[in-house]
């Protein structure tokens, strides 16, 4: 009887080891729902099909009510229902808690075919445009890397923003090398930790005097220093308007030979009644050779009259006239077919020369702080979340200038935790536990045999 009990216990244990956990089943289900987005030339692709961002900016409560909108399954479910009504495929989130679990919402988004473009900064952990050198430090980068860790394994994480409107006039262009250094560091961390190649880029302010210089700068230099895409916030189309009245035709001409994807990280001027007439232009062949879509600002009303909906409670919202207008605009504008005339070869830009509107001397970037460089091998560890002390004057700053190519991935971490993450990033299938179960059974049978001798 003892022998039977031992064998029964071993069999039960083996069965428990072989069965995937609920989280693994959830992640595997999400993996089958979406295909990770890649970059080819100056366009995004979903497998072999050109992918255009059709989405909204999503941060209920705004910057005054710092909260993670995808850490709560209830509100996330409420809003996904509205996203599906709009017919969108992407949301942008400006702030998340990198200590929270996002499985439920990220997988619910994936099941709805919706991707995430994520800002890795937060109000307490960001570059200070006035003192960029002091704010570019190890504590800041550790927070960013922890956020990457929290989202890299979801197949519907489309891209990361390294910054948002850090340069907002001519006088702040001197912060550009630090924005570019952060972008370089993020790309190196993703590669060094063995994650899939998730695109990293910058969301720029639409400053006429240096918009093109900023785009050139983010796409010039050695391969490790270049962004994977460039985005900017554009409110120049105010209904009633047109492709030419808005000046969008000139922007298309300006960026015609740009080598990486461009999209609008915010759009939707509300000077007049919004009809979202620009949607028809944005997804028309007059723009698709250069632009890869955009994100409407913004989903929920926060007191600035940009909200598409008003949130009433954790379970309900009221759709406003702008929601209905955008819904109609998307419904009337089918996703483009074919490759949209994209530039398949891509290519680097030349770095802009210093001028009265571009205060950057030379092409060199600050070297990554030594403490942050160590995280490439060890991993970021636990992030500070939304309650951390902040980073802008935390010390551990850069002490030199980087050499070109220093941000290249020379070795991929092979630690067990990263290997598991990497496997998840590639397939997100449940871990095959059968070898573990077999080993457990063999050991058990050996023990039982010894006791019977």
Automatic annotation (TrEMBL):
One of its GO terms (biological process) is fungal-type cell wall (1->3)-beta-D-glucan biosynthetic process. Its main location: membrane. GO terms for cellular component: plasma membrane; side of membrane. GO terms for molecular function: 1,3-beta-glucanosyltransferase activity; hydrolase activity. It is a lipid-anchor; GPI-anchor. It is found in: Cell membrane. Residues 1-18 form the signal peptide. Its EC number is 2.4.1.-. Pfam families: Glyco_hydro_72 (PF03198). Keywords: Glycoprotein, GPI-anchor, Hydrolase, Lipoprotein, Membrane, Signal, Transferase. InterPro entries: GH (IPR017853), Glucanosyltransferase (IPR004886). Belongs to the glycosyl hydrolase 72 family. Splits internally a 1,3-beta-glucan molecule and transfers the newly generated reducing end (the donor) to the non-reducing end of another 1,3-beta-glucan molecule (the acceptor) forming a 1,3-beta linkage, resulting in the elongation of 1,3-beta-glucan chains in the cell wall. This is 1,3-beta-glucanosyltransferase.
């Amino acid at each position: 009887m003892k022998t039977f009990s031992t064998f029964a216990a071993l069999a039960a244990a083996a069965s428990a080891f072989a069965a995937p956990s609920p989280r693994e089943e959830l992640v595997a289900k999400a993996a089958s729902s979406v295909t990770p987005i890649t970059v080819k030339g100056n366009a995004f692709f979903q497998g072999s099909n050109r992918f255009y961002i059709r989405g909204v900016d999503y941060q209920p409560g705004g910057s005054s009510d710092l909260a993670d909108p995808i850490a709560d399954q209830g509100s996330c479910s409420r809003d996904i229902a509205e996203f599906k009504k709009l017919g969108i495929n992407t949301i942008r989130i400006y702030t998340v808690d990198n200590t929270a679990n996002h499985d439920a919402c990220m997988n619910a988004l994936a099941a709805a075919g919706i991707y995430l473009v994520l800002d890795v900064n937060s109000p307490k952990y960001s570059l200070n445009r006035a003192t960029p050198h002091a704010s570019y430090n190890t504590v800041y980068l550790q927070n960013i890397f922890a956020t990457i860790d929290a989202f890299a394994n979801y197949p519907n994480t489309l891209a990361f923003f390294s910054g948002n409107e850090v340069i907002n006039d001519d006088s702040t262009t001197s912060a550009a090398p630090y924005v570019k250094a952060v972008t370089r560091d993020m790309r190196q961390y993703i590669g060094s930790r063995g994650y899939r190649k998730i695109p990293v880029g910058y969301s720029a302010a639409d400053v006429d005097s240096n918009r093109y210089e900023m785009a050139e700068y983010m796409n010039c230099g050695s391969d490790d220093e270049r962004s994977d895409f460039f985005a900017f916030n554009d409110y120049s189309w105010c209904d009633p308007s047109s492709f030419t009245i808005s000046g969008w035709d000139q922007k298309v001409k300006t960026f015609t030979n740009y080598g990486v994807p461009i999209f609008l990280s915010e759009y939707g001027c509300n000077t007049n009644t919004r009809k979202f007439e620009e949607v028809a232009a944005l997804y028309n062949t007059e723009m698709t050779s250069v632009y890869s879509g955009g994100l409407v600002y913004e989903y929920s009303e926060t007191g600035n009259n940009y909200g598409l909906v008003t949130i009433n409670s954790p379970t309900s919202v009221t759709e406003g006239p702008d929601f209905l207008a955008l819904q109609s605009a998307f419904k009337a504008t089918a996703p483009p077919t074919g490759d949209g005339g994209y530039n398949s070869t891509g290519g680097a830009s030349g770095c802009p020369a210093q001028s009265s509107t571009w205060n950057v001397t030379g092409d060199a970037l600050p070297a990554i702080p030594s403490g942050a460089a160590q995280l490439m091998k060890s991993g970021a560890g636990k992030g500070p979340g939304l309650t951390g002390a902040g980073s802008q004057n935390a010390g551990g700053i850069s002490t030199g200038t980087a050499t070109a190519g220093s941000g290249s991935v020379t070795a991929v971490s092979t630690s067990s935790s990263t290997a598991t993450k990497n496997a998840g990033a590639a397939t997100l299938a449940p871990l095959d536990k059968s070898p573990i179960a077999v080993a457990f059974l063999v050991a058990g049978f050996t023990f039982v045999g010894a006791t019977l001798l």
